[in-house]
Amino acid sequence: MSRVTLSLSGTHVQCRDEHPSLLVALESHQVEVEYQCREGYCGSCRCRLVAGQVDWIAEPLAFINEGEILPCCCRAKGDIEIEM
């Protein structure tokens, strides 16, 4: 289990082993995330990783800049902070 901090609101949510992705973990806590494909193709869920690391479930196909992640295709690797 990892703790995810949303830097814009200071909210903390838990990312549990049963959550297949960071996106699902955020949704389970009623955090609204823009998304379209859930597969890393569109990049709609792109956000900045402020602190910590993620494990990629699948390599994203959408373009992401250094320091950005796609919550639909990664999981928190320990506690993280994202700009959201």
UniProtKB/TrEMBL annotation:
<feature type="domain" description="2Fe-2S ferredoxin-type">
    <location>
        <begin position="2"/>
        <end position="84"/>
    </location>
</feature>
<dbReference type="InterPro" id="IPR036010">
    <property type="entry name" value="2Fe-2S_ferredoxin-like_sf"/>
</dbReference>
<protein>
    <submittedName>
        <fullName>2Fe-2S ferredoxin</fullName>
    </submittedName>
</protein>
<dbReference type="InterPro" id="IPR012675">
    <property type="entry name" value="Beta-grasp_dom_sf"/>
</dbReference>
<dbReference type="InterPro" id="IPR006058">
    <property type="entry name" value="2Fe2S_fd_BS"/>
</dbReference>
<dbReference type="Pfam" id="PF00111">
    <property type="entry name" value="Fer2"/>
</dbReference>
<dbReference type="InterPro" id="IPR001041">
    <property type="entry name" value="2Fe-2S_ferredoxin-type"/>
</dbReference>
